[in-house]
Amino acid sequence: MDPIRAVVPCRACLSGEDLDWLGGGRSVSLALGLMTTVEVGSGPAAGEGGWGEEVWAFLRGRLPGLAARPPAVTVHSEAPAASGLSSSTALIVALFRAFADASVRGRRVSDATLTRWAYEFEFAVFHGGGMDHLAVVEGGALLLDGREQGLPVVRDRLGFPEEWRVIVVDSGTRKDTGHHIRDVRAQLAAGDPVLAAYRAAADEASGRVWEALRGRDLAALGAAMSDAHAAMRDHQRMSTPLLEELREAALRSAGLPLKLSGAGGGGALVGVCPTAEVTATVARLSRDLGVSHPAARVIPTAAAPGGRGEPVPVAGGQRKGS
């Protein structure tokens, strides 16, 4: 019997960090072709010291007849860990899909159900939002309306232009999302006007990011992503001196605007360039950053279609074309 395999992309946030769970604002996600693969039927016992056993225990409460212990798995991820690219969510979603497919052969758990389960599982640990789960299951670009409870609302979908590629600059420093979420929830409870200013600025930037994607306007996209980054840095102190140095170096050497993806004071920056220029851009960045910031990595990638078999419904019941 062929092994059961789940392949799930990671995601970049192009604008609107935290707005997916703060509510009252828009965010834009993009699935990236840095894939996490989980294969059931080989390798060590699943989840020894990791997520596998916990995901299995969650599924045992929802899928009758599962064994006490999870099956063996192998895991491979192309995304840098703790980088703001949702590598942990990609792993969790891949475990949910692979375990579910291995356990209920011929009766596939729907993507909408799997997305909700993965969100509920991760929310119980981190108390964050659902952008990541929708992004890696849906794929492509999503415009999301945040909700204080539950998954965000998918307002629109777009296919990413074929003539563009994404460049990831991994700073080599790990982010701390758990600490960040606790701090922002405290701001929310206190009615902090700084948080309100960030929400307004990030929502406005998200609207412009989406219009730039729809209009295939690369210059407008870079400007809007830069403004989204500035809101993160200036209002919520999500950036660091190292990340700002990397942004300046990328602009100086390759003319590439970069935006921090994900909150937590570390991780990766993302930019978009023409497909025809990606090789030269990566070469310039790698050469220059290799001298000034040798711990940083430059990773070219493309948008990904996601791990879905069918889409989570768009608000209002209509599916938007890509």
Automatic annotation (TrEMBL):
| One Pfam family cited in the UniProt record for this chain | GHMP_kinases_C
**GO CC aspect terms:** cytosol
Region annotation (Disordered) ranges: 300-322
Keywords for the protein's UniProt record, in alphabetical order: ATP-binding, Cytoplasm, Kinase, Lipid biosynthesis, Lipid metabolism, Magnesium, Nucleotide-binding, Transferase
Q: What class does this enzyme belong to in the EC scheme?
A: transferase
Q: Which InterPro entries match?
A: GHMP_kinase_C_dom, GHMP_kinase_C_sf, GHMP_kinase_N_dom, HddA/FKP, Mev_gal_kin, Ribosomal_Su5_D2-typ_SF, Ribsml_uS5_D2-typ_fold_subgr
Q: In which pathway does it act?
A: Isoprenoid biosynthesis; isopentenyl diphosphate biosynthesis via mevalonate pathway; isopentenyl diphosphate from (R)-mevalonate: step 1/3
Query: EC number(s)?
Result: 2.7.1.6
Q: Does the keyword Kinase apply?
A: yes
Q: GO biological process: what's one of them?
A: isopentenyl diphosphate biosynthetic process, mevalonate pathway
GHMP kinase C-terminal domain residues: 211-280
Q: Which GO terms describe its molecular function?
A: ATP binding; galactokinase activity; mevalonate kinase activity
The keyword Plastid belongs to this UniProt entry's keyword annotation: no
Q: Where is the GHMP kinase N-terminal domain?
A: 72-140
Q: Which PANTHER family would you find in this protein's record?
A: MEVALONATE KINASE
- This chain belongs to the protein called Galactokinase
Natural source organism: Streptomyces nymphaeiformis
Classification from the root reads: Bacteria, Bacillati, Actinomycetota, Actinomycetes, Kitasatosporales
